[in-house]
Each structure stands twice: as C-alpha cells, then as structure tokens.
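Lab notebook: predicted structure, single chain.

Context: the supervisor wants predicted structures on file for every construct in the current expression panel, including those that have not yet been purified. This is the next one on the list. No modifications to the sequence; it matches the entry in the shared construct table.
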Amino acid sequence: MWIDGAGAAGLLSWLEPHQHRYGTAATFEAARKGFEADWNALVPLIPDGAFNEYRRHRAVHAWMETMWAAGLPLPTQVASGRMLLRYRDRYGSVDLHIDAEHMT
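Prediction complete. Output recorded below exactly as produced.
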C-alpha cells in the first residue's frame, strides 16, 4: 500500500501485516499506477462499514478539537450536565449531533 501516516494507520488498522504494501517509484506516474494497482487489490478485502467507521472516528476527534480550541468543555466534562441537555434537546444525543454537523 502506498499510503503512510497516522490517518492511514487508523483506516488500515484491521489489515494483517502481510497485507500492507510499501514502495517507491522513479516517477509520479509510476507511483500512481503502483498505488492504483495495490488499492484495487485491497478494496475487496475491506470489511463492510470500515470507511464509515473511519469517517466517524475522524469526525468525533475533529469535534473534540473544535470544542477545546473554542475553550469549551465536552459534554461529559461539565458536572451540571447542561451541555448534554443542549445536545439532547436539539439533536437527540451527542452522537446525532456529530452525525448531523461533523460527518462530511
């Protein structure tokens, strides 16, 4: 596989060690062709729902980072539970808020 980095590690964490692919190429075109061949061989092995699970994982962490960057606590970090009520009243739950607002 021609993907590298923490994001790829999360998406591909279910792979067996022998399924990983690495490589280099002399040109961009050769690298693109190598990636495409490896990707096409890998896609049939990806479990149902893996891409959605990965996108949801990214969305949850993006939401958390946004909250913290704005100086806001996460709903579970508020002793009064007021923030949980806000999400429940508008969306039904924090999970539904993430689905509606952060799953892009």
